[in-house]
Amino acid sequence: xxxxxxxxxVTDAAHILSPQxxxxxSARLEKLEQKTQHQLVVVTVPSLGGRDVAEYTRDLANSWxxxxxxxxxxxVLLIAPKERKVRIAVGYGLEKRLSDGACQQIINREMLPxxxxxxxxxxxxAGTDALIARLE
Length: 136
Fold this sequence. Notes:
By secondary structure, the chain is α/β, with parallel strands linked by helices. It has four helices and four strands.
């Protein structure tokens, strides 16, 4: 299914982030992984291709193998600007720490206010910061 190839901790296939923003995010995600072993990746996609955002994100996480085998502790933050969709997919190993409700709260409180102002990079950074805070 990997409609988008994994390009690292930040895969910006929708070309939303500047190289500097990608580098900053990537460094923060690497630090999180070194500290906790949990893998968090940020991905933007040009389109979901008519697919459900939850299925698309889960399939991407599985095909990319995000998280440690046996721990199932990967998290994928997906942004599909064309469809105006955001999804946080969480591996079973982290569901206690990052419940569906907590993820929805992060999207609603941290990300959408910036997105509504047209600041996609700011919303992505805020969402990533909130996820990192929960995982550390």
